[in-house]
């Protein structure tokens, strides 16, 4: 089974590295990394990743994972071919998934009707006709979305459970020693902290 992780400039590294560690931890999975070209791709905080495939060469896969970006509005204006490739490959997948603002790319491609995303991008998802959930992981048919950044691990574990069963999912979770403490969310923190965070994120989109 192939799992393909989408790369594009200014993606957020943990959005795909977290799910990669989970999904690629299943022995029958072969991980692939797809981008517009085979040139190394730089994440928004500087991690450089080398693709294994291009949008032109890879036309089918079992699982797609679309990361988000700290500069998602810029990416939405110019996705570098990501949206078109998603439309083309989606009919071949068993699961099409996103992490963080990656769900806005799925929405732009017209592939999702209900999804979650990073709290700072909820409006960008809503204006694209998507029912926005504040849940950490959302299943919409074969489309699965995870909220911001670290939620990609949760999304991937839920996906592994759906595809391979609870025992495999539990084994992978314990293998990476994932037991987050304490749980926090944007909607549970004091309003003054939430507003400060929102201001900081909005300034990055200018």
UniProtKB/TrEMBL annotation:
It comes from the Bacteria. One of its GO terms (biological process) is regulation of DNA-templated transcription. Residues 3-161 form the DJ-1/PfpI domain. InterPro entries: Class_I_gatase-like, DJ-1/PfpI, INH-QAR. Pfam families: DJ-1_PfpI (PF01965). This is DJ-1/PfpI family protein.
